[in-house]
Here is the input.
Amino acid sequence: MSHSLQLFSTPEAPVSTPSAEVTALAARPTIIARQANVIYPAADKPVHALHDIDLTIRQGEFVSLIGPSGCGKTTLLRVIADLEPITSGQVLVNDVTPSEARQAGAYGYVFQAPALFPWRTVLANVMLPLQIQGRLPAEAEETAREQLARVGLSGFEGKYPWQLSGGMQQRVSIARALGFKPKILMMDEPFGALDEITRDHLNQQLQELWRAEQRTVVFVTHSIAEAVYLSTRIVVMSPRPGRIVRVIESTLPTERTLALRDSPEFMQLAHEVREALAEGHHE
Ligand SMILES: Nc1ncnc2c1ncn2[C@@H]1O[C@H](COP(=O)(O)OP(=O)(O)OP(=O)(O)O)[C@@H](O)[C@H]1O
Ligand SMILES: [Mg+2]
Here is the structure.
């Protein structure tokens, strides 16, 4: 918490330099949730999956959602991406409803379990959203191959999803979401099924991609280290009912290397996230 206080109270902060203007532009809200609630009906007892969620995500931010199983992380992603209606409150994406934003092709979505078509090859799965967008076949194929190379799957283009391991399938689904360059990238535990080294590699790739292209990313993870390494802000959630317990602003530089994970600043942030998680757990 002290970090965000420091950020906002710096007396010598410039107000009218060009870089401040650029920052102001970049800070345009992309996703706004106000008093958003989701209650899933159930025969015995309805589940209050999201309770009074207030959250504004600005353009170009990398926001991670972290919290114990069942605290509503996937539900919040689904609400933003128009895959789940809210019971009450308001959600706006790019100043319009999630449904309108979806129709405008605003989202790329990496699901918690890779949702690939078993009858399409790896290449054809990655090409699908590009074809839906109306790209020429040759161009779609080139982009799909590039994205597959990026996630380390060159040589697997002709395989079918069921011929790949779970982690490889997840990487296909990441390649698919990145390919059509959505403005908002929603990622639900995309690296959960991967071994540590591959995960480090993809964390690094995602960080570089985010830095180069400044897309808005909403990312779900159970890993504190991953959240701290990648995020500009970390939203800590708690279950029953699912709610936000703390929002932690990152103090790390925009450009990050894996070595940064050994720095005192990184450890301090990880400590803050761990404390907030424990707090939510004991409430
Ligand atoms: N379609 C649904 N119908 C009824 N209840 C649901 C539905 N989807 C989720 N829930 C409930 O809503 C709550 C939040 O679920 P959600 O999947 O959002 O959690 P999560 O934080 O993503 O958990 P995990 O870390 O295990 O993926 C849970 O109690 C879950 O049982
Ligand atoms: Mg989930």
In short: The pocket of adenosine-5'-triphosphate (ligand 1) is lined by residues 40, 47, 49, 69-75, 112, 242 (CB under 6 Å). The chain has ten helices and nine strands. The first helix runs from residue 2 to 9.
